[in-house]
Amino acid sequence: MQNIMHNLINKLGQYQNNTDLWKNLEWREGTNSQGDYIDENSLRRKELLIALQVNLPKARISKNFEQFLQFLLKQEIDDRGNDPFQGLTESLTRAGFLLARFRNPANVWLFVAAKTANFDTHCGFDWEYMLSAGIKETFDYVEAKEHPLKEQFYNYFDSRQNCPLSQPDIDKWFTIKQNTYSSSSEIAETDLSFWIDLAVELRWIENVKQLLPEWIQNQRWDSSSLRELKYYQNFIEDWNGQIQTLRELFIHEQNEYLKFYDYCELAELYLKLGNPFLAWQVVLECKSVLPLDKDKLGELGVNALDIISYSQNEEWVKDVFIFVISHQPHYLSLEYLLKLVAACQQMNDKQAEERFIPLMEAEKQRYNEIMMKNNSMLGRASIGELDC
After folding, report:
1. If 0-12 CB within 10 Å is exposed, 13-18 middle and 19+ buried, where does residue 246 land?
2. Comparing C-alpha atoms, which of 68, 134, 133 is closest to residue 102?
3. Which of 297, 323, 230 is nearest to 269 (CA)?
């Protein structure tokens, strides 16, 4: 715990005292090993945002920290605006609330930009952020200023008189957010779960490994604590440990719905370990011990489809392919259809391939149309136009 705090304090001090380093925190588009979009500096910013959360007492709130948070939030907005898969991130909401604590009406434009960064932020980024400086104070400021995002602010709050939120609503929201983003002074140092969860969010694997044995010693095992352990084991990539934990869960878990998804996860773990045959045995075990409706069989079919892609076309794989063709999920997503067509080709089943290719192409077309529609709905001003 002390190591985590020490690292956070050091990182914050390095950047807070040297604005020349801020360029290392700017949004920067890149790709991961799978070729998917990433922001190359997102983790650096996350570390500093968490450092600000757990190390910044109210007494130290200053204009200097506000400018730093404005900068960090701008980068998070650029990240959300440029991610082709859109999404709402914890860093965006954390940066937003830490900045909202300053109660500065001039930050309204950043909150509008965050709200309109993409379709998911439009739906999920709280609109209370835009009024967090106070309803009267915010409307006074917006009415007196000209800004490229002024019209978009009024798309959410058309007038002071018709504002759907009251000041008590804002105050209640603020209290809830304050409880969510507590500082370290409000967390007991002996709260191992808090510090492990913090290390997980920071992706500090070695800290999690150091704290986990003590956490394990203090547990009374039931389905809840076993699930928490499984989450930590997944983070540190202890696949064999996860398999043992899942087997324990089969004993403790009474909820058949949850147990079904535990079987699915166990099959996925065997695939990670390069053993598709054991993954297939898990599917068969699940089918034999749990009552499964058509939808659940379809979800097992998704696991079976992955098993085919990991296999070497051994004789038993023919049974897996029959299972896949017989049991499909209710919704055939584009990702699923791409895998299904690939499986048909792998199994050299031309008839099945001809059946599913038109469905795959139609889903591609539908997906492209949705993406174009979402992008056209949200005309986002360049973050460079924001004036805070």
Report:
1. buried
2. 133
3. 230
Q: How far apart are CA 187 and CA 50, in angstroms?
A: 14
Query: If pLDDT is split at 50, 70 and 90, which confidence band does 346 have?
Result: very high
Cα Rg of the chain, angstroms: 25
* Residues 6+ positions from 144 with CB-CB distance below 8 Å: none
Q: Which long-range contacts (CB under 8 A, 24 or more apart) does 361-368 make?
A: 363/332, 363/333, 363/334, 363/337, 364/334, 367/334
75 to 32, 78, 378: CA distances (angstroms): 19, 5, 19
CA 286/CA 8 separation, integer angstroms: 45
Write the CA distances from 168 to 52, 62, 96, integer angstroms. Answer: 27, 26, 20
How confident is the prediction for the chain on average, in pLDDT?
A: 90
User: Which residues, at least 6 apart from 229, have a Cβ–Cβ distance to it below 8 Å?
Assistant: 216, 219, 245
Instruction: For residue 263, give both structure tokens.
Output: 């079987």
Q: Which residue has the tokens 């945002």?
A: 49
Cα distances (Å, whole numbers) of residue 359 to 176, 304, 307, 354: 45, 20, 22, 10
* 181 vs 139, higher pLDDT: 139
The predicted pLDDT at position 39 comes to 96
Is the pLDDT score of 381 beyond 50?
A: no
pTM of the model: 0.69
Can you give the residue ranges of every domain in the chain?
2-186, 264-388
Neighbours of 270 (CB within 10 A): 21
pLDDT of residue 186: 55
